[in-house]
Amino acid sequence: MKKIALLCSVLLLAACGNSGLPAVVGSALPSLKALPAQGSEGSDTGLIFTVQLSAAGSAPVRVSYTTRDGTAKAGTDYTATSGELLFAPGETAKEVRVPLTGNDCHDLARAMTLELSEPESATIDTASATGTLLDDDAGGASYRAAAAKRVVSPGPELFAGVPHEFCPTTVQNFYLGGFGIRDVDVVPCTPLVVPIKPPATGVAKDIHLRVLLLQQGDDKLAFVTLDAIGIGNVIQEGVKRRISEVTGTPKESILFGATHTHQSGDLQGLWGGVPFEWRQQLYAAAEEAATEAQAALADAEISYGQTDLDEPSFNNYRRTDATIGTDKRMTVLQVRRPDQGTVLATLVQYVAHPTVIGSSNSLVHGDWVAGFHDAIEAAWPGSTSIYFNGPIADASPNTGAADPLPPEDADAFVRADAFGRTLAGKAVALADAGLKRFAPQVGPQIVAQHRVASVPVTNHLFLALAAKGYFNGYYDFLMPPDPDATATPAPQVMNVANVLVSRVSLGKPGCTALEIATLPGEASSLVGRYIRGLSESDMMLLGLTHESLGYLLDESQYTTENGTGLITEPDPLFPLGYEEGVSMGPLSVPTLRQQAYAPLFGAAGLPLP
Fold first, then answer.
1. Which backbone phi and psi does 193 adopt, to 5 degrees?
2. Domain locations in the chain?
3. Which of 249, 430, 404, 237 is nearest to 332 (CA)?
């Protein structure tokens, strides 16, 4: 019996191996395969995908198909397409046509996919195929970019105190800016003072000045940040002058902003100031960083992305009218080498006051921004991280968003680091999800426009401080600032502040484009909302950039806090609210709107929405 079974098996295998005999009943179904396609964006034929059937069947074969976005987007680059293919008996190939959308933008190659599903009378071997869209427009000059940074922490000799620059019989200490108020001179230029704020005593974590250079053709732009609460126009001039001399970038196109940490030197004179020698060190550091970046300039790819951080929110609205809310927008601008994809720099803009470390601290530190930079640079080793705030006036950090959340007894440095690293993780995730790339277009791709607004100063506190000479060496309201000259004790008349405001357009309207607008102070989210509404393109708002004029609130917010008529915890120094009391006055935003933002964006100078 076993011999008969073995003989039958041998005969059956021989029959199956003979190509001249029909296949046995129950053989495998034919398989479907989607093949890649390629097409020019301006072509009439579009992308033509071929779907192959491995063998002709005796029964009809059906399969569904649909398109899916990649770097090519439906509605912008191609027309979303879906349907069903029917293979009649004997057919082995079908085509799927995907219409392409032409434009006059020079684009990098983009891709989408065709996906197969729900087969009948067949299986699927290759379920998806890539469609590559090629550009048919001429390209312009490539972007060039490089970045560098320098440590600018003060040395021990500055914490010990040095002779004051225009009162040599007194000592100038290194004061942190942001919390409290400065000592009051009873008699100017004498040791007779009312002590209020103690000076800094050392460094907990290094602070930095960071530079990112961006060029296309003859157009040049620089992003510069410093760990500081704000930066007066004398220091602005000193840093910009050094960078401009090294790089050829126009001074007005150097977007120099403060991170707004409250644990770094007071560069405004409001909290006691810093030694003249440290300000000179900042200028030298700017020159060194710019020189390094200039020497490293090379072709680069620029890309950006935006998202709103709602769950969890990383900032809390800190004023009384919570219906206004904070600005939740995060923008990531990234620079890569085109040949290797190596990240050179990552610029992130987001709003959350760097005040995780409180007023009792006396050590220099970047607050949560320091941990943020560490995490960004760890994600892309060898790169430079740059952070700008935005409409930050009403946004406090939500430290509860830190993940993992430090224990309740953790010190402020640990809590700041945890918050910064968690926020950096959101920026990394946004970059990893895919950013919009700027392809070099014909014509200028870095278009910088500038306006100077003459902002009236009606704040009696600021007028009194200017008259006492407290702003000297940090701001000059009467003459063009000279950063290399030692200040004098002469009082200043501070009735008007001439303020530079910039609009920078990256890319080409109708193509990949990002608008950048500078804010010369701590703008409220309401003011930021107005400026964003001036353009249909995505916009990044750079706070405390070019200038630091205190808080910038809508005029409706000056009657009493948020215009509600109620202040739950009035401050004797600021009876109408803290932000109102530390601003140039209610004419600031109307003046900036009429003299700067409206003309820069070609819009009527209408009230805030």
1. -135, 160
2. 29-134, 144-600
3. 430
